[in-house]
Amino acid sequence: MDVEEIYSKLMQRKRIPKRFRLPYTAEQVYTMLYASCRAEVTARMRTFNATDEYKQHIWDIARWLVSNDSKFGLFLSGNKGNGKTTMVYALKTLYAYVHSDSTYTPENKMHELPYTGFRIITAKELVLLAKAYNNPTKENSQAVGEYKFLRNVEVLCIDDLGAEPRESMNYGDIITAVTDIMIYRYQEQFCTISTSNLSANEISGYYDERFADRLREMAHIINFGNEKSFRN
Predict the structure, then answer these.
(1) Each residue of 221-231: pLDDT tens digit?
(2) Widest Cα–Cα separation across the chain
(3) Which of 51, 92, 55, 93 has the alpha carbon at shortest distance from 232?
């Protein structure tokens, strides 16, 4: 009996989730994501004027999407209006585009985790679902089911971290919605994308260092900083 033998046997018992990645080159993903960003802006009756900084963000995300990086999420931080939410909706559009030929899931795969899909929810909306999950009733069963799905969906984006109350009361219970779902997905190593006007350093002040430490481990950080707002 030796270390390698025991290690090999132990690893056979481990469930190691497959990282969410795209089977293309970085250049191909950049082209598709750029087009997806442009489509999102055009759909809002605006003109897509990609700055050099924004193009660099697209390139950084494209490289991550084809890499062997151990990080299994993204954290987009920076000033208001500089394209973070547009980027995640473009990623969702891209996800749908590259999965457009995937019309059938074998029955034996339907209940495997994570569930196929890409969902976007705001941090404030997540709090409402978490309250339902914490106190399930017949009336809120749909919200409970949605929360359970979000916990286990392949790609989850939580938009606008820090806009929600960090803690909220619900029938005497303290709800920490964002922290709970982020920690769960951290443990399961499911792809989680988040956006915030808070910087990576400010996250620890708003939540706590335990949360921030796990976010740093799980997420590749894309810093939009104080780049100009596109809403002007």
Answers:
(1) 999 988 888 87
(2) 67
(3) 51
How far is residue 149's CA from residue 219's CA, in Å, rounded to a whole number?
Answer: 21
Q: Using pLDDT thresholds of 50, 70 and 90, give the confidence band for residue 104.
A: very low
d(CA 58, CA 32): 10
Residue 130, number of CB atoms within 10 A of its CB? 23
Percent of the chain past pLDDT 90, that is, above it, reads 72
Structural contact between residues 42 and 48, judged by C-beta atoms closer than 8 angstroms: yes
192: three-class secondary structure by DSSP: strand
Cis link prior to 114 (omega < 30° from 0)?
Answer: yes
Residue identified by tokens 């270390």 is 3
What integer pLDDT is reported at residue 110 of this predicted model? 53
